[in-house]
Amino acid sequence: VRLMESDPTHRPSLPLALRHRAMVHLRAGRFAEALGDGERLLPIVRANVPEGARSSSLGIAYLTLGEALAGLGRNAEAKTALTEALRHLDEAAGPTHPGTVQARTLLGRL
Fold it and tell me: Are the C-beta atoms of 30 and 72 separated by less than 8 Å?
C-alpha cells in the first residue's frame, strides 16, 4: 500500500489493495485497522464515480466500512454504510452478487 501511495504508476491498484488488506484485518478481528483502510478507500472510489451513479466498486467500499463498523459495535453507523452498500451493489451488480448478499445478511443481523 505504501508503494502504491508513493509511486503514481501504482496508484490505480490502491483501492484494490486497501480492500484486500481490510479483508485481512476483518478476518483477523482487527476492526479498527479495517475501518482505517475503509475510510481511506471510500473517497478514492467516490472520486471516480459520477454523482448519483450506482457502482459496484462504491458498494464494496461501503461494505468494507459497514463490516468494520459492525465489528466495532458501531451499529447505527454500520447500518448506514451497509444500506449504501446494498443500494449500490443491488443496482450495479445484482441481487445475487456475493457483496450484495453479504450486505443484506449483515444488515439483517444488526
Answer: no
